[in-house]
Design a protein that fits this description.
- Helix content is 31%, strand content 22%.
- It contains ten helices and 16 strands.
Length: 343
């Protein structure tokens, strides 16, 4: 086999999986590259025994869980010199400051080295200064059939009803529609496409933390949770279901209005939908955290990963409007989920 290089690293066994994670991070921060398990440093193939689908899934999950922003490598079992090996490859990332277990790495020649904090900070600042849209990031190793047909149909219906997408939708294939919406770029699906349209199995594999965890408690002092449900897959698969879940426990309140008593629901549908839409638009998808919606009898709390967007503070939040995920916001605007692109 070819010699180790700036884009190739050999590992004898899966006992070196942590070192391989550092290598992959260094590759992503430089020019991309590949780690091959079951090969000695000199290129001699010794193989890996008992490779199963679970083996490959576990490796993938380890790297997704321990890299920030998340890296999604391509993992394959291959036959070399009559023996089974595992190939893990990663492309050069458009986000040049990935870490593995909170530490940044860089590939230099045939070695993976810790990136200096000065270099890491420079890359971090330079990238953020570009004000790039994370939801427009292109994702490797996903295809059009990783998207839900039901979500695609709903997308078409919503675009027709809204009238905000000035194209004859019926004449467009799914691929062309996604391309026109910028959800498919250079032949690759984006984070936005997966967040809004992916099959649950796809998101569980690629972005397992993109989900909303709903729970109901009678009051804040209650330790026991009365009801729990996890909503995953593309948002267009469950945006109605989560409101229906909330509304099923939406109590009626008797509110004095002058000399009359008026019955009103504790939660207004429009306000709740807006709050959920905002979590989809503004959460930080690079973080390995779920979104939590906790319902009480007269209050709902929404906890979404990521702080305020750069440039927005508690002091100026009412006057400053910025969007963390512009492509998601743009798509939800076109489907009339939100009224303004700054929402």
């Amino acid at each position: 086999m070819e010699n180790e290089s700036e884009i190739l690293e050999y590992k004898e066994s899966l006992s070196e999986i942590e070192e391989a994670g550092e290598c992959l991070t260094g590759f992503a921060n430089k020019n991309g590259g590949r780690v091959c398990f079951g090969v000695k440093n000199n290129g001699e193939v010794i193989g890996i025994s008992n490779i199963t689908e679970k083996t490959l899934r576990d490796i993938s999950q380890r790297y997704v869980d321990n890299t920030e922003p998340k890296l999604i490598p391509k993992i394959e079992a291959e036959m070399k010199s009559g023996l089974n090996v595992i190939s893990v490859s990663i492309e050069k990332s458009s986000t040049p400051y990935h870490t593995y277990k909170k530490r940044p790495f860089i590939r230099i020649g045939t070695e993976t080295k810790a990136m200096s904090q000065d270099e890491y900070q420079k890359r971090l600042i330079a990238y953020k200064d570009l004000n790039q849209d994370f939801s427009a990031k292109k994702i490797n190793n996903v295809q059009l059939d990783d998207l839900s047909p039901e979500a695609m149909l709903d997308l078409r219906k919503l675009l027709k009803v809204s009238g905000r997408f000035k194209v004859s939708i019926d004449k467009l294939s799914d691929e062309q529609l996604l391309r026109d919406l910028q959800l498919l770029r250079d032949g690759k699906l984006t984070v936005a496409a997966l967040v809004l349209l992916a099959k649950p199995s796809t998101l569980s594999r690629i972005m397992p933390y993109v989900e909303i965890r709903y729970s109901f408690k009678l009051n804040e002092s209650e330790m026991r949770t009365q009801d729990i449900e996890i909503f995953n897959g593309g948002y267009l698969l469950y945006y109605d279901k989560i409101w229906e879940k909330i509304n099923a426990r939406n109590i009626t309140l008797s509110v004095p209005q002058g000399l009359l008593i008026r019955d009103v629901k504790a939660f207004d549908e429009e306000s709740i939908r807006e709050a959920i839409n905002n979590t989809i638009i503004h959460r930080d998808y690079s973080l390995n955290e779920s979104t939590f919606v906790t319902q009480y009898q007269q209050k709902i709390e929404v906890k979404s990963p990521g702080g305020l967007v750069d440039g927005v503070s508690i002091e100026n939040i009412l006057d400053e409007s910025k969007t963390r995920n512009k492509l998601i916001a743009d798509t939800l605007f076109k489907t009339e989920f939100v009224e303004h692109l700054g929402n």
